[in-house]
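Subject: mismatched residue count in predicted assembly?

I count 594 residues in my input, but I want to confirm that the predicted structure covers every chain. Input:
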Amino acid sequence: MAKWTYSDKVKDHFMNPRNILREDNEADFHGIGQTGNIKCGDEMIVYIKVDPADLTITECKWRTYGCASAIASTSILSEMVIGMTLDQAYAITAKDILKELGGLPDNKVHCSVLGDKALRAAIDDYYGKNGMEDRIKTQSAKIVCECMQVTDEDIEHAVLEGVRSFSELQDMTKIGAGCGECHENAQAVMSGYIQKHFGL
Amino acid sequence: MENRTVYFDNNATTPLHPGVKEALIEGLEIFGNPSSMHAFGREARERIEDAREKVASFIGADADEILFVGSGSEANNTVLSLLHCDSTRCSCALSGRSGLVTTVIEHPCVLNTARDLGRKSHEVTYLSVDKHGRIDLEELRRAVTDKVGMVSIMMANNEIGTIQDIKAAARIAHEGGALFHTDAVQSVGKIPVDVRDLDVDFLTISAHKLYGPKGIGALYVKKGAPYCPLILGGHQEGGRRAGTENSLGIIGMGKAMELRAIEMEEEEKRLLELKNILKAGIAEAIPDALFMGHPEHCLPGTLSVSFAGAEGEAILLYLDLVGIAVSTGSACASGSLDPSHVIMATGVPVENAHGSVRISLGRENTLEDVHYMLHHLPIIIDRIRTMSTAYRRK
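Triage response: the counts match. Full output below for your records.
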């Protein structure tokens, strides 16, 4: 058989996904974060258990509605974060996940951008439940696209990465892929950042 | 269950018929340029004309109404381009009518050409479809105004298999004074097609969908219909399509048509039976399966289905791991952000559209293949649903 489009590591995690939450025991977890929207094609939920003594992640489980890339990237993320402090885990980006996976085809990169967001949401959920509201970072970011949970910070990040048009922004973030209502606002936010950083 | 390799993606392309393969191997020796007057050229010409006869007779046309083209896409582009022809070499002016009527579920080679026509200020009307993927003939009647030069409606849809009432649609187009084209790429070779009975002006065929080679198609142009070549150059194909003929491809296509004439009828029944077993088996073994396409007016071997909570690309790839090939309308498989325009047009909820799978059977498929699928598919769907955010067992 010809080789897969995906790396062997992606294939392995797709065939043998690790740390799926199989039973309905969400209540046992200390933090739960959800991103995406099934209407848009991808949805992920990340569940974490945290050791309160040193704020490290002791367990990470997940569920996803998504393609092979989405399954593999959430699976590998769940392995990466175990043993990490919440601060370390919070700093994981889609790029880190991609690197760990050995890359994804360009048109599949957008499938891996939800895992890190779901993880951050789970960490924030933990902070919120444990009186550490001051550590929640996503509160400062404003959600621009409800369907795909894309924030103004994500758009700023994309602009800094070289995105200049809405279609490029969509390629990177999946913004506006659901109901599409955010299109105009997203365009304005993006133009604002292009102006701010590049004076264009 | 013993591992096997099962190809259930015959609407994408079909394996070569062994008879076609033989004809191709034999045809490799025929290298003469069919436009040359010497013996080598004459032999190639003879083989091409023989193939033309076979293609024509299979769809009830005359040989001089068939021209060979590079693909179904080329044939469709050629026909739609008649609407903006400004050539002085031909007489294809469509009585000043430049409008196009087509449907929202056409193949991209029609939709993208239609979009270009729209940008060139042609009026383009896209007919909607019902939940089974059928157009409304009354909507068509209203759309064929005196500005419309061409109506182009696919005979059977490649994704959901729904077959349109082309005869009625062509009559409506003609009553309104417009020409009628049908993209019959998925139909010819699968269901009976007779151009005289249907009374179409143009009809598109592709060889690789009927066990012939890739890179060769045919366009039926009714005698007397306005026509202008898309590819300009020499006098090949009666001046209707320039470029040295793909004689090997044409030989293969002719053989494929000849074999279809012998095998199609029996196969139609057999594939329908296999599909019905597959459909009943899926419905029984997998809860919340949604079947798409028309329950009756549907290609015999096409089964389109979606599974709540299971995403299409994941299904496709898990099936690939056990040797089964299908296709999906999932956005994730196409690399775009939206799921299939065909599935969406039928009003299927977007959650389902992301999880649509097309199983298309062909002449090599057996009952064992169907059983193999029915063994693996429920396990795979259950596996995906176990990790899905979107599905909980009831």
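The helical segments of chain A are 8-15, 68-80, 86-90, 94-101, 113-129, 152-160, 166-173, 183-198. Marking this ticket as 'not a bug'.
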